[in-house]
Structures are given as C-alpha cells and as structure tokens.
Amino acid sequence: MNELNTNKIETKILKPFSGIAAIFLIILAQILSAALSIAGMFFSGWLLLVGATCFCLLFLLYPGIRVLNPNEALVLTLFGKYYGTITDSGCFFVHPFSKAFNHVCDQEGFSIPSTASTHENTNKVPSPSASKKVSTKIMTLNNQKQKVNDILGNPVIIGAVVIWNVSDPTRAVFHVDNYVQFLSTQCDSTIRNTARLYPYDTVETDSDEKTLRGSSLEIAENMRAELQAKVKDAGLTIHEVRITHLSYSEEIAAAMLQRQQATAIIAARQKIVEGAVSMVKMAIDQLNEEEIVLLDEERKAAMVSNLLVVLCGNKDAQPIVNSGSIY
C-alpha cells in the first residue's frame, strides 16, 4: 500500500491520576471552600468572596473525571492538538478541558457493526452516547454479497466475513476519516482483487490449480494478508477472513449445473465400463481354465459384446433362450 501524504501521529499513552482520588480531593477542597465562605460571613467579606469563588471553580474539574471499561480506549485532544490516549480500564482524572475524539461517533445514525449483523455491513441505529470511546474488542464485519468475475470471466457471487479489532486507537481516529467505513471499502476491494485471480472451479478433477471453491482456506488467508496490509496505517488488526457465500451468478448457474451433471455422468460411465471389462475378462478366463465350453474368436467377440451391453446398459436385460445349435 502506498504511503499517503498525511500527518503521522505517534501514540502517546497517558498514565493519568486516579479518578477516585481526584474526586475525593475535589470534594474535600469544596468542603474547605464552603467552610471558608461561612467563616467569611462572620469575619471578612474577602474570605467569603474567595471561598465562594473557589467553590464554584472546583466544579470545572469534574469533567476531567473519565471512566473506561475493559477493552475500551479514549483518544484525547486539547485545544485542537493531540493530548494522549488512555488504554487502561478504570476511573481517571485528565485535563478538564480535554475532549475525546472519535469521528465514528460524530456521524449521526452510525454505529460500529456487531457480530449480530448478517445482511449489511453496518447497523444503522442512533448513536448510543457522546462518550466517543474507541472499542478495542474483537468485532465482526459481515460483508455484503457482491458479483465479481473470476479469472475465466464467469460471473460469481461471493461474500466474506472479517474478524477484526482496533489495535491502535490513535491511528484509527486520526489517520482515516472513519475506520469502519474504511475497512468495509478495503474489504470490498480485496474480495474483487482476489476473485479475479482464481477460477470458480476446474473441469479436470485431478488438477492441482487453486480454485475459489476447492482452495477457500488458502485464498481466505491470502485475502487476510492483503487486507491487513491495506488497513495497517488505520490501526486495525485483521484476525481472520472467511468466505461465507460462493455461487455462480443466476445467468450462468443453470449452464454450470448442466456441466457439472455431465462431468458426473461421464465419470460414472467410466467406472461402469472399467468394471464391465474386468468382469468380461474374468468370465472368459474362467471358462477357458475350467474348459466348460470352447469358443472360437467369433463367439468370444459375440459373448463380449452381449456381456458389455448387459453390464453397461441402464435398463434391465431381457434374455433370449436359444433352443438350437450355436453353430
């Protein structure tokens, strides 16, 4: 994948102050400010002003309390600049004016696809919250079925599922506009590029050529490697790609079914002929060894013809009893 002309931002992992301790200190400071204000009511107006001002300003520190669940990350910016990333779970205190950044949550009606999605790339539901946390859980992207042409030009309908997660939240939110849509687009491109390199199936049964139907695991691994190379700069890790649907397109499905049926019939006939020839040879050899009847070459040819007709025919034989001489 070609390097894009974008500003590469290095991840800075924050180790912020404990949020529980910060809450305790803020509440303690507010209690002291309230006590100072009460004292100022009896002794000095300046003490009342200072205490009331401190008590109100301490409320500005509460937005700095951030809570993260396991497998979540928070990418923070401060006045338009990258501030840092929190990857640990727990309660933390950061700069109260820092803002969480996640462009996926900024788009109304869009959410990260879940394992329950089976028909579409994404579930269009209202955004659940404005927390803008980046989920680092392993997720499933069920790609839409799409029509592509294999290496022989046959139209094929193919679909795949991608197991992935966000491994670098900083890159995911800053290097691409929307990492979920970016992954979906790259997945479509990878499927098309891979399907054009292989045939759907081969006519020869003993061929070692890789096909979409016969070598699905190897082809899926190639798709995973190609997709991983494309989304590496977006901070995504592709764990697995599986082909979930593979079929001929409707316009050629009937013709391909006839070809498969013809191939199966030819293979079955070959087995029947091989068995019939073996049985005829065994019958002639046994007759000659036991000297049950002596046949000349003409009668042997007639016997072979009759046996092959009986053994290779697809209908029951109707025997004819010969009451006269065979000569």
Write down the oligomeric state: single chain
Q: How many beta-strand runs?
A: 11
- Structural class by SSE content: alpha+beta
Mean pLDDT comes to 78
Number of helices: 8
Largest sheet: 4 strands, antiparallel
What is the rounded distance between the termini?
84 Å
Order of helices and strands: EHHEEEEEHEEEEHHHEHH
- Give the low-confidence spans: 108-130
Strand content: 15-25%
Gyration radius from CA atoms, angstroms: 38 Å
Q: Percent of residues in helical segments? A: 40-55%
Shape category = rod-shaped
Brief summary of the model shown:
With 327 residues, this protein is of the alpha+beta class. The chain is built from eight helices and eleven strands.
Write up what this structure looks like.
- By secondary structure, the chain is an alpha+beta fold.
- It has helices at 19-42, 45-57, 103-106, 169-174, 179-195, 216-231, 250-290, 297-312; strands at 17-18, 65-68, 72-78, 81-86, 90-93, 99-100, 134-135, 139-142, 146-149, 155-166, 236-248.
- Strands 3, 4, 6 and 7 form a 4-stranded antiparallel β-sheet that branches.
- Strand 3 and strand 4 form a beta hairpin.
- Helix 5 (179-195) crosses helix 6.
- It is rod-shaped and about 140 Å long.
- The protein starts with 16 loop residues before the first strand and ends in a 15-residue tail after the last helix.
